[in-house]
Design a protein that fits this description.
Largest sheet: 9 strands, mixed
Number of strands: 12
Shape: globular
Distance between the termini: 44 Å
Oligomer: single chain
Number of helices: 12
Helix content: 40-55%
Strand content: 15-25%
Radius of gyration: 18 Å
Length: 278
């Protein structure tokens, strides 16, 4: 088995149905594994009947996205992994173009595809590792929304698909190909990240181990962001901020860790503001 498309689901069944339909249409020869957390028995039966070629693995618990990917990876030993969020839809072949990048560039451990919003805009799925500028120039910051062409946002986010394949710090786990050797050497995803930032952590560990991450707009998907998280919005928001703090502590310098209490308070305040705004 050369590669497998891996989808980790959580209650977003309409989106998952469209995702699997798009795979069947555009990438029918690539094996698909779905690990469905807190699965509905009714929906599980429906999807199994509709997509008999998909390996569908319902789970009673929800241990998080990274744990779900690791679970799926154990079911397809030796295969490169093409991760795809259930709220993504293919617009053309996905696995073959991304695997072509891995074949041609042997030191590339992770390759991220071009990701578009549902309205066609390019999603900033390739980014710099977080630093002091990320809070101001990150993907969801006020400055990036209001003045998207400012220097801080340009520093943190990559959105130009016309520049071709290029090395970046990290790419979104919504759609990424991972070389199997790299995945196994890194021990997969860090399951202490329940949701969010596990993709940045994986790319950072890959870089430390000598692997390169690239943004490869040779394939693209449409990503309707946040469809699964809407089923548990407060828990998802909390997971985002908790994972941000975990990433900060894990990868920060000793001097940065001294400031961890201040960072924790700032993230808690951000969580409260975002929760009030809904």
């Amino acid at each position: 088995m050369k590669a497998a498309i891996v989808v980790v689901g959580f209650r977003a069944y309409d989106e998952l149905d469209r995702c699997l339909a798009s795979i069947a249409r555009h990438d029918p020869d690539t094996p698909v594994v779905v690990v469905d957390h807190q699965a509905s028995a009714t929906e599980s039966a429906r999807l199994r009947a509709r997509y008999p070629g998909v390996r569908y693995e319902p789970r009673e618990r929800n241990p998080g996205f990274g744990a779900g990917v690791n679970d799926a990876a154990r079911l397809v030993p030796g295969a490169h992994l093409v991760l795809l969020n259930p709220d993504c839809e293919l617009t053309g072949p996905l696995a073959s173009p991304l695997l072509g990048v891995l074949d041609e560039m042997p030191r590339v451990g992770i390759a991220g595809a071009l990701v578009r919003e549902s309205d066609g805009r390019v999603q900033a799925s390739a980014r710099r590792f977080p630093d002091v500028t990320t809070g101001l120039g990150g993907r969801t910051s006020w400055l990036s929304r209001v003045v998207p062409d400012n220097p801080l946002t340009r520093r943190n986010l990559t959105t130009d698909p016309d520049a071709g394949i290029r090395t970046v710090d990290w790419v979104s786990g919504a759609c990424m190909a991972i070389r199997r050797d790299a995945f196994d050497a890194l021990g997969g995803f860090d399951e202490r990240f329940f949701l969010y930032w596990e993709d940045a952590d994986l790319c950072r560990r890959a870089a430390a181990a000598g692997w390169t991450t690239v943004y490869a707009p040779v394939a693209e998907v449409v990503h309707v962001t946040g469809r699964a998280s809407r089923h548990a919005p407060t828990r998802s928001r909390w997971a985002f901020h908790r994972s941000a703090l975990r990433y900060y502590w894990k990868h920060g310098s000793p001097w940065a860790r001294v400031a961890a209490p201040v960072v924790a308070v700032a993230l808690a305040a951000r969580f409260v503001v975002r929760s009030v705004r809904g």
